[in-house]
Amino acid sequence: MIKNTILFTFLFFSIQLVAQSTQLTRDEYIRKFYKLAISEMKRSGIPASITLAQGCWESGNGNSRLATEANNHFGIKCKSEWRGKKIYHDDDASQECFRKYANAETSYIDHSNFLMSGSRYSFLFQLDPKDYVGWAHGLKKAGYATDPTYAQRLIKIIEEYKLHVYDEYVDNRQLASLKNETAPVKIQPSTLGKINSRHKIELRNGLRTVVVEEGDSYQSITKDLALKDWELHTYNDIEKDSKVRVNEILYIEAKYKKGNKDHKQHVAEDGDTMHYIAQRYALRMKPLLKRNRMKKGEEPIAGQIVYLRNKRPR
Predict the structure, then answer these.
(1) What are the residues facing 208 on neighbouring strands?
(2) DSSP, residue by residue, 186-204
(3) Which residues pair with 100 in a beta bridge?
(4) CATH architecture, domain 175-254
């Protein structure tokens, strides 16, 4: 019995040590997500330093339960308009409802959308985009957090880790522009056939897209938008027997044959697939593979340059 107890205690502390060793440091978190924060700054106008500082603080550098189990890096609660997956967590009250995302990127995108669509945050977008101090105090004033020292916490993280340098970032060729146009989207009956869709149609990379909601299928989305059976699969380079994923972005019109002049190359990171790159930059898979002298099924390795506009040199 004593031996079993000792063995259990040893295993328990070993597991604890392994868990602690796998936690991200703040430096590691920043290195992991700074490109995504810059990409969202280009799309939304929210300073990358603010997004990163909020991500660091709200997610405990990516180690909080909400971040690890729900990919929720900004503590955004469900609200009445949320139709995606949910997770329940103690916050200001017991077992509050928080949004659950498919991946961290979706969390960052939703964070930007959350601020852009909230009327109480609209005054922030009148500030100088490099005024991280004004943004920090403005977020507190608008009620983003209940912590009375929230603004000071963000400013301290930004200045201690020099996050403001990312607000100066200008070379954006390796980052996607998932741009949400502010102008109303005009839906042509000849291409979509149905104006009153229950899905919100947004422009990303200049093309119409929808986001998969809980309970959706390719068939239900096709029916809702009055598309032809082949369109969703063809536009998104998806096999017919594939299943949709909640929060997945789907193009509802044909993607481009090549990247634009601002996005000529993509440096692959660990885990990147050609399909992910094609979707991120709104590119058709077949021309993208041909441009990079790759065959169907081949995937890039970390650090590989994927050519989006010109053909890969021999």
Answers:
(1) 203
(2) ---TTTT--S--SSPPEEE
(3) 85
(4) Roll (3.10)
